[in-house]
Specification:
This protein is an alpha+beta fold. 37% of the residues lie in helices and 12% in strands. It is globular.
Length: 139
């Protein structure tokens, strides 16, 4: 990784900031992350764009959910399951699905990602967190 990029101390979830499903997922993670382990950034924002550039990922295709943790990125279903594992409540039980090969998990992930705007809607602009949650977000 390029040395000009400083990996944050907390795991960061990068998401499509205009996707209703993605925004609802972020809000679910916040609700089930009482220790505030995670930070968040939209893929469209400057931090998200820098991560995409550093890891040589498309900076215009936002069909993935990315977890940046310990200088590594995880995408799609693997990222989602790694996040679920850290959440409180029954959400952590979803991690059992990690045993399913990623090409099978990602087939279903891609199906939802491809249709997410049609099924769940889209906002005109990125979701803005409330002032008390703003500290959890990168620009």
């Amino acid at each position: 990784m390029n040395s000009s990029f400083n990996t944050p101390p907390h795991p960061v979830i990068l998401f499509d900031g205009v996707c209703n499903l993605c925004n609802a997922s972020v809000q679910k993670v916040i609700k089930h992350d009482p220790k505030r382990k995670f930070r968040f950034a939209s893929l469209q924002g400057s931090f998200g764009q820098e991560v995409l550039k550093q890891f040589h990922l498309s900076d215009t295709d936002f069909n993935t959910f990315i977890l940046l943790k310990d200088d590594q990125i995880y995408t799609k279903s693997t990222a989602a399951l790694k996040v679920a594992k850290e959440m409180s409540g029954l959400w952590s039980l979803l991690y059992i699905f990690i045993i399913i090969p990623s090409f099978i998990r990602n087939f279903f992930y891609d199906l939802v990602a491809k249709n997410r705007y049609k099924w769940f809607g889209k906002q005109d602009a990125c979701w803005i967190p409330t002032p008390d949650l703003k500290a959890l977000f990168y620009e």
